[in-house]
Design a protein that fits this description.
By secondary structure, this protein is α+β, with helices and mostly antiparallel strands. Helices cover 46% and strands 19% of the residues.
């Protein structure tokens, strides 16, 4: 009733609307073909689940009138990115899938590429996506083994690949263009779906190895042939037109939406993706937003199959590709199969996802109340790691609405030379938030440090110098190194019930930042160990040492490398391998 007068003024026009809580925080953004009808629907009927939670927290609403529904959707996408409202669906899996990219100029080359946004007009020769990154790497490695593509970065001298017949000597030799064109044609034919051409090539190599009594290499290729056969069988879809398509199947129950996306490339099913989340508004509006946001991170195919209830004209205006609802035959069977998978995934995962979401929302709200914060959407957590003061590092992880946002994670190699947690925290907090100010990037509602008052004071001092008002709290451990209390904004210790959802919520985040920091510390330490070993090798100066560490990362990788001559002269490369093998054997005996 309190919105009755305001609702009477809302026009029957398309647009985007924003819901606010009592702290004037945007908690939901939506779009509508008719703003008046949509906004009224929140207040003139009973709701359940996440929609009820949303409505119970609405203190005010605003709206932006648009000229078209497509414009409404674009406004909605931009406002959700800006405000990150807690009741909107959140595509937390923001990783980009790998593609195989073929590069023809200046030399023929294959590589694994990841693109957060791939437009059709880019004209890149991309094949995929491959939800299974292992499969993409294995295919690239196999093609490189079968065909003499360019594999190294050397631009002057013939390398090992040329001498073992796996490169045409692009750096120094005059190339046979007919041979290169023939090779390129075969590779592209396979990547576009012609399995036979690669299978024949593998059989030819197997026969060649067998004739030369090289049975070990023949066996390796036989295993690759079996792998290609398995992949081909899994991908088999009876479509003869070889058009790149995505297929969206949806299933909705108990206020939860399950979406399954099939990726079809050149008539083959190369993989699929599933998401499940609770929704707070009209089902099909939510699906349309999901699809529009999905294609800001993934390649846009030539066709997209969707359920008939979706507004295909709207999606075509926003995404600029063809949206179709097949009515019969194999294509309808594909849409039905995606829908069935969406249902099966819902049934398999619903209970766990519902429990985790409720637990996360409640814990985040409880933390907000305990710390007396008006808003708690983004949390930045910090942890330091060192070994007796050596190779000191720090790490930051980010949680938004209780979910980890891995693209926001940051690693810091600490410049301070002594083991000093206070000044380490000061250095890292300054570097993180001074840069945020310079770049005008998003700031957190709360900073959590993995430590007591010492680290809280260090963080507060730097934030004060930067004129930033960000809440800082700490997680303190007991004598057994187990987290037992939260230090609030007034620097008071609040004991945590180890059986509570809040305790598990905080320790989950604490474990994640600790894992991230330790992993980075181990990598830095490993590189430091390699550097100290390389310092003892005559002929390896700073530049060569840096290049070796960057490319190979570990001593074992250097020992196993076949292309050391891209960095070192042949004799020095051989001497280095012998030295490292001897060193490794001695260490093994001593251990």
């Amino acid at each position: 009733m309190k919105f009755k007068e305001k609702l009477s003024l809302v026009p029957n026009l398309p647009g985007s609307y924003q819901m606010y809580d009592k702290n004037n925080v945007v908690i939901y953004v939506g779009k509508a073909k008719d703003l008046k009808k949509r906004l009224s629907s929140y207040f003139n009927r009973e709701h359940t689940g996440k929609t009820k939670m949303l409505v119970d927290n609405i203190y005010d609403f605003k709206y932006v009138v648009a000229t078209t529904e497509a414009e409404s959707l674009l406004i909605e996408i931009n406002l959700i990115k800006k405000y990150k409202p807690k009741y909107n669906i959140s595509l937390m899996d923001d990783k980009s899938y790998p593609y195989i990219e073929y590069i023809s100029k200046p030399y023929p080359k294959l590589k694994i590429s990841r693109y957060l946004s791939v437009k059709k007009k880019d004209n890149k020769m991309l094949f995929g996506p491959y939800p299974n990154a292992y499969a993409a790497r294995r295919i690239v490695n196999l093609i490189n083994r079968l065909y003499p593509l360019k594999k190294c970065d050397n631009k002057k001298e013939l390398c090992l690949y040329y001498h073992i017949g796996e490169c045409l000597g692009y750096c120094s030799k005059e190339l046979d263009n007919n041979k290169v064109e023939s090779m390129e044609k075969e590779i592209l034919s396979f990547l576009r779906g012609n399995d036979k051409i690669l299978k024949d090539k593998i059989m030819e190599k197997i026969q060649n190895y067998s004739d030369n009594l090289n049975f070990e290499l023949a066996q390796e290729l036989k295993q690759e042939l079996e792998y290609i056969n398995i992949i081909s069988e899994k991908q088999r879809v009876d479509l003869s037109d070889l058009i790149n398509r995505d297929v969206f199947g949806i299933y909705y129950k108990n206020n939860y939406l399950s979406v399954d996306v099939f990726f079809l490339r050149n008539g083959k099913l190369v993989g699929h993706k599933n998401d499940i989340f609770s929704i707070s508004s009209d089902l099909y509006d939510e699906v349309e937003y999901y699809i529009a946001e999905f294609y800001t991170k993934h390649e846009i195919p030539k066709e997209v199959f969707v359920p008939k209830e979706l507004n295909k004209e709207l999606l075509e205006n926003v995404i600029e590709t063809k949206f179709i609802t097949p009515e019969k035959g194999t294509k309808k069977g594909l849409l039905d199969m995606a829908t069935l998978n969406a249902k099966i995934n819902y049934e398999n995962k619903f209970k766990l996802i519902e429990k985790d979401e409720v637990r996360t929302i409640q814990s985040n709200d409880e933390l907000k109340e305990i710390l007396n914060l008006n808003k708690l959407t983004r949390i930045d957590l910090f942890d330091n790691s060192n070994l007796f003061g050596s190779y000191a590092v720090s790490a930051m992880v980010v949680y938004i609405n209780g979910k980890p946002m891995k693209k926001e994670y940051r690693k810091y190699k600490v410049l301070l030379e002594k083991n000093d947690d206070y000044h380490t925290m000061q250095e890292v907090i300054y570097r993180r938030y001074n840069r945020a100010l310079m770049e005008n990037s998003e700031l957190p509602d709360l900073i959590l440090v993995d430590g007591g008052l010492n680290q809280i004071h260090a963080a507060k001092e730097v934030l004060s110098d930067l004129n930033l008002s960000i809440a800082v709290a700490g997680l303190k451990k007991d004598s057994k190194h187990n987290t037992n209390c939260l230090i609030n904004l007034n620097e008071e210790e609040i004991e945590l019930d180890i059986t509570s959802n809040l305790f598990h919520y905080l320790t989950r985040m604490q474990d994640e930042v600790h894992r991230f920091a330790i992993t980075y510390h181990r990598n830095i330490r490993s590189k430091g160990q390699i550097a100290s070993v390389l310092d003892n090798v005559p002929g390896i100066g700073e530049k060569r040492k840096k290049d070796l560490i960057k490319k190979y990362k570990t001593i074992n990788n250097i020992i196993d490398a076949k292309d050391l001559t891209t960095i070192l002269p042949e004799k020095l490369a051989q001497s280095l391998k012998e030295y490292l093998k001897t060193l490794k054997d001695v260490n093994h005996e001593n251990n």
